TrEMBL record:
PROSITE patterns: MFS. Coiled coil: none annotated. It is a multi-pass membrane protein. The chain crosses the membrane at residues 20-39, 51-71, 83-100, 112-131, 173-200, 231-256, 268-288, 300-327, 384-403. SUPFAM superfamilies: MFS general substrate transporter. The lineage of its organism: Bacteria, Pseudomonadati, Bacteroidota, Cytophagia, Cytophagales. Keywords: Cell membrane, Membrane, Transmembrane, Transmembrane helix, Transport. This is MFS transporter. It comes from Aquirufa aurantiipilula.
Length: 421
């Protein structure tokens, strides 16, 4: 049976540990995105400086990139769940520090409050350098190989659900509960993630992962594998450059406050729109996975992302902007499912942590460095021109990749999925 004709849309959800994992992942996503929206809006209200928004992404990506490869090495050689628990504890500690700073806001200077926010974001970046590779490499061990693709879709769908609810709630929480009340909600969600981790059993380290080679050799091995596996390299590179240049999430507070003039509530809607599009797209892909002619679908999805971003940049109408963001999420979700399925089926078990860490560096570079790039370009050339330039760059890049990857158009990812049955 072809994978394109879905066998059991709910097969991955039959495994209790996988259910605990995706619930925890949803709460984790909600918490961190809520916190991101809250502190971004707070910083922009204080500074009215686009560059200050870009620095949020830079503060997170520098420590993450610095540690992610080491995090992947330890995820392959240590108890993945324990790594996640320790890292999550550090993130919770940082959130408590943000809460304390917000409660002392009247007694301290705004600059000190902003520096505290940047410090906590830096701390979260450090913790995610270990948490993310451990989580990504643990996920495939929770279900049999024959339901990997279905698990990838459900995992992405729940992630998108968190990405809808988190930002959407953040704007309203900020408006009605204030800064401190919003941050308290974030902490409650993070404690919920910790609870979910206790429902996942400790997993043994794959025998081939245990090595007496130096850590540097181990890291090199993971990097070399990614760069010699063309489909993995191209898939994560496309994500890197499309979101790096075409992403607009970091500068949405500017659109909400100065261009569309819709305030915190409008910001919540704008921030949630891409995830609503992604979630609906994921719902369709549960029944109609995009793995038949996967590479063609990936290229078309990235091109659609760029076109939707162009429309958003041109628009001065709130609801047209919301629809454009909706489609950026819908197109991006297709690339997410294809990329995650490719990573699962083309990565050996003993290298999942290291390959996940390389993928995480590419993804974080696109998100956090993209946030920094958005802030810098908005500062230098204006908000709208920076969005239009980024969207154009995305379309140019996907065109160049399409011309140089014609051999991947023949690749049958769907048949590789079927071969494990």
């Amino acid at each position: 049976m072809s994978f394109f004709q879905n066998k059991d849309a709910y097969s991955a959800l039959k495994f209790p540990e996988f259910r605990a994992f995706i619930v925890g992942n949803t709460l984790f996503t909600m918490a961190l995105l809520m916190q991101e929206v809250i502190v971004s809006y707070e910083i922009y209200k204080i500074t009215h400086n686009p560059l200050a928004l870009g620095l949020i992404g830079l503060a997170e990506v520098i420590p993450y990139i610095s540690l992610a490869l080491f995090g992947g090495h330890y995820a392959d050689n240590r108890d993945k769940r324990k790594i996640m628990q320790i890292s999550l504890s550090i993130i919770i500690l940082g959130s408590f520090l943000l809460l304390y700073s917000s409660l002392q806001l009247d007694a301290q200077s705004p600059d000190f409050h902003i520096y505290t926010i940047y410090f906590v974001i830096f701390l979260i970046g450090l913790a995610k350098g270990f948490f993310s590779p451990a989580a990504s490499s643990l996920n495939p061990f929770l279900v049999p190989k024959e339901v990997f693709a279905n698990a990838a879709t459900w995992n992405s769908s729940f992630w998108q659900l968190g990405a809808i609810l988190g930002p959407g709630m953040a704007g309203f929480l900020y408006a009605y509960l204030g800064l401190a009340g919003s941050l308290e909600t974030v902490i409650v969600f993070l404690l919920g993630v910790m609870t979910c981790l206790f429902f996942i059993k400790k997993r043994p380290v794959p025998p081939k992962a245990v090595t007496h080679e130096s850590i540097w050799h181990s890291l090199k091995e993971g990097i070399v594998y990614v760069f010699k596996t063309k489909i993995i390299l191209y898939a994560i590179s496309l994500d890197l450059f499309s979101v790096l240049f075409g992403g607009v999430i970091a500068i949405l507070p500017i659109f909400a406050e100065d261009i569309l003039k819709v305030g915190a509530e409008g910001l919540g809607i704008l921030r949630a729109a891409p995830s609503i599009g992604a979630l609906l797209s994921m719902g369709c892909m549960i029944y109609f996975p995009p793995l038949e002619k996967a590479w063609r679908n990936l290229l078309l999805a990235i091109a659609g992302f760029g076109i939707a971003t162009l429309v958003f940049g041109i628009s001065t109408n709130f609801w047209i902007s919301v629809v454009a963001l909706f489609f950026t999420g819908a197109f991006d979700s297709v690339s997410v499912v294809i990329r995650q399925t490719v990573l699962r089926f083309y990565t050996p078990d003993e290298m999942r942590g290291r390959v996940s860490s390389v993928n995480g560096i590419f993804v974080s570079s696109s998100n956090e460095l993209g946030a920094f790039e958005s802030g810098v370009m908005a500062k230098l050339m204006g908000t709208v021109p920076s969005v239009l330039l980024g969207a154009t760059a995305t379309l140019v890049i996907v065109s160049l990749v399409a011309l140089n990857s014609k051999d991947l158009l023949k690749l049958q990812v769907a048949k590789k999925v079927d071969s494990v049955d």
